[in-house]
Queue: 4 jobs
Job 1
Amino acid sequence: MRLYLAGPMTGFPQFNFPAFDQWTERLRAAEYDVLSPHEADPPEVQAIARASATGDPAEIPPSDGPLVTALRNVDGVHSCDGIALMDDWYKSAGVLHEIATAHRFRIPVAPAVMWEALGAPTANGLFGGSQ
């Protein structure tokens, strides 16, 4: 079962990459195929983001700015069987957009801790994932 990991980035030090890294590892340990959006960023953008003290989008090159990222993330949501919400997800306009996209296409959305507790085999049985 493939999960899209959704959480806030803007305004968080290092664009919240450390928390994304932790959740990606935890969900993969629970046997999910995880699409963590920060892993899709080009290496040079990842380096800028990890060095950011403020998580200010103005630090990101326009070639990988908010519109490009939003479109890539919508594609990511469409490629997954569920959305795993990190802490503070409600602080992110991007996550709200991802949730709206998921609801539109009847993709289940739940806290990452719930997905972790279920584990991929059980979640796949409940939600009928593609894997």
Job 2
Amino acid sequence: MKRMQWSEYQDRVADLDREIRWRFPGDASIHLIGIPRGGLLVALHLTYMSKRYDVINDYNIGRDERNDVVLVDDVLESGATRSHWFGALRGSLGGKAPLFAVMVDKSPCYPGVIPANICSMRMTSKEWIVFPYEWEEDEGKREAVYRAGHPEHTGEGTT
């Protein structure tokens, strides 16, 4: 288990901010959808980086085609959460897939998982990350439950 400190978290949010704004030049709004729990916090913290960000949800997405939507999460592992959200959002975004931005991308650990479009850190280890807004004891329990249900997630490898 690796604990991420607030200073590293802030640096990683700044990395995401730079990359997202590079992908969307100009002054137009950039619409963020934060995946509940960690993704909501990352999306919220991004809004403090630029006035261009607007956090949206399924109540204010609308049915118009938008090219400026970023789905935000704290970590990408098996890809199940992303697949669920992409499927849920596809009709709301006129059939277009949003960009996917994560703080930590572990897709290299899982064959067949598509990497995030934007990430701040790519890991080649299944090591569990405890973000600074999480309680280490609770995350240790969550990791054990997660690994029990996903025996392929051994945590082996190098970062």
Job 3
Amino acid sequence: MGKLRIICFIEGISCILLFFVAMPLKYIWEEPKAVSIVGMAHGLLWMGVVFALFMAYLDKTLSIKQAASMLFVSTFPLGMFWVDKQIVALEKSNQQ
């Protein structure tokens, strides 16, 4: 679960960078290169999240319902931070 949290957090940061740094650079200051770079990194990180969720399901760390709901929410902007909160809650419930 630790690796899943890390990749979710990094993907969330890439989303923030894409929306609040790269896109304004493209649309306000007409500098499209930032969107190419940050957008590619964001896409690759999201694919990493999909893979990590699948692996967590295969390892029986997450149920299919948990993995599917996290995958669904991850498609929304900044949804990774909700996913991170859910992972923390699962870790706490597993410790008790």
Job 4
Amino acid sequence: MCRKSWMFLIVAACVATLMITPCAHAALTVSNLNSSITVDQNSQAGMNNWTVDGVNQMFQQWFWYRIGATGGESAINTISAPTIATASGRVIETMYSNAQLSVDVLYTLTGGTAGSHTSDVAETIRIVNNSTSSYTLHFFQYSDLDLNGQIGGQTATFVSPNAFRQTGGGMVFSETVTTPNPNEHQADVFANILNSLNDGSPTTLNNVNSATGDATWGFQWDVTIAAGGTFIISKDKNLAAAVPEPASLMMLGGVVLLIARKLRKVTA
């Protein structure tokens, strides 16, 4: 399914929901200095807006899970209606809970000065086994950034199993998992990873390290959680303007020097 068709279905579902339910479940937004983020806690659109200096850099970032080795993955918003959905200051928190598990996601936005093109989002995810027996949880983060609002022309690279970097449109995005390290990861083009998470079959990310074009990517954690146990993921996302490579700076310096020489000849 192409991106436009997929987004149309998401929007149509949201409109249908709003026709039935009150607007109290509208998406959550917070701002800080040059930045704002929006999280749709009611659908797998998830974090679908990260605006920095007036340009949205994020198409979609959300979480999926699977308990055990069989069956497909489910987006965390299918666990339950949000039991927590708050936006205050520069913090968004959304939580889902049923008899098997609870997933609580906390976003903290730190913007930069106007025109700096810098922004940061810290994330903490707390997962609790609410059942009376241990189980193996497979937890996924899927991300699709369109840096500087550009769908294509993106280069995605895992620089290590717990660190990711994407460039495009004169911007640089990085994400680092502080703890614990993911077990698998994958870089790919839209919408291969997303389709795999939604196809009803078990997914294991393939540890491919890079992709170019309309790049997307994912992390996967595999963990056994005891009854009543807690699993916490801590990570950080950062956006900044790209710094010219040394070779580009040398080329620019050569051009400036050539112009200076020509000007001296003209004025001599």
